[in-house]
Amino acid sequence: MSFRLPAGFWKSFAQDVWRKQPRVFKNVHEGRLFAPPEELFRIAAEETAHLARTAGARSDFGCHISLGKAMIMQDHIRLMPAEGDGSFDGWAARLSREEGREGFMYYMNSAQRRSPLLFQRYREFTEGLFEQIGLPSWKVSTDMFVGDYPETPFGVHKDVVDNFHFVAAGRKRMLLWPYETLLPYVKEGVDARDIDYALQLRSLKDIREQAIVLEGDPGDLLYWPGHFWHCAEGTGGVVATSSCYIDLMYSPLMGLSDVVNAKLRPVEETHPFTPYVPGRHQELAGALPERLRDTTRRVAQGLKELVDGGLEREMELTWLRYVSGGGFLRVPPPASGVVLDEGQALKLVPTSNLVWRDLASGELGCAANGLVETWPASHGLRQTLQRLSGGGAHRVGALLDEAKEELQGSGVVWSRERLREVLTTLVAWRALAPA
Ligand SMILES: [Fe+2]
Questions:
Q1: Alpha-carbon dihedral of residues 409, 411, 414, 419, nearest 10 degrees?
Q2: 148 and 123 together in one domain
Q3: Which CATH number does the domain housing residue 107 bear?
Q4: Is residue 324 domain-resident?
């Protein structure tokens, strides 16, 4: 059953609430819990196990733990929710037992990457919103906040994102203030309207009374526009929320900077020290190291490749990811170990947004669920994608038997094996499922 909300809900939301005012929507999915705490706990524990395996060396999720106003950088893996805790309540109980204190906050960014279930639900949810306001050219992502903290550790702040907050466990309370009302607390000369900004307040004492208070229980949805100042307030016990945010200051092209950075990598290679004689700088100016010239040449060559088409290709692929991911660029990775069963019938998962387009490079880019792949353009590939997106059940063996080899120059651009590769990829992307 879909987590899409009725068109009427989104119509009035777009008209009266979006970017205008905070609001609580009680029991939005009529008794069904959008973000089950068990799923949130599962992905938190999975990420902790991953961090423990890599000794905390690398996380794509920006997880962290805070106590009071401090973010804990050392020893944070031990303090994170772990499988043995059984639940967020178990995790909080362990912390107060072992640390002798309460008030921890656990945060995870891009949580949808760890959970195909949440990713699917968030896309069903945002689908109706985007129908009203358009697909933002901004980043859409989700995060999670869990803890028994008395106040948001980084205090009263505003963001350049709009927030949808689903309560998963406990009672969530948010305090909000319209942008203009707290301007006296903003540092002089700062225009905070279009930036993330946290106020440096010692306590909420002076402003608590003017706050707009939003409260939600499991199943409720809280919304606030990013330009409202906000801060969570504890309600006793552990509160878990899953939130979706729409970034107002992000371009889908931002991902391209990684591609450019990869080309700049030779600059970071180790270079020998240059012999140095104090006072003889004019001599040194004339002796530019050959190695430096080489590196520059290689970087220039790499950047030229980007300018000559590489960057355009990346932009096209990013666009396909964006469209098929419904605005989400960070998505669950493909399932591993997929083996096609020729006797099985497969059908398209309509919410996977299977799409394709001809790239300027001459290849065909194909994407679903925010994942993208390129193959040589061929009649067979186009026909297959068209057939699959037309719906219906397709037996794998029958599809493979129909594949007619196509050649281009001396290369094979379509074959039974290529089709097998395409189908396996689509199953791993969760775009094809057993019929
Ligand atoms: Fe915030």
A1: -170
A2: yes
A3: 2.60.120.650
A4: yes
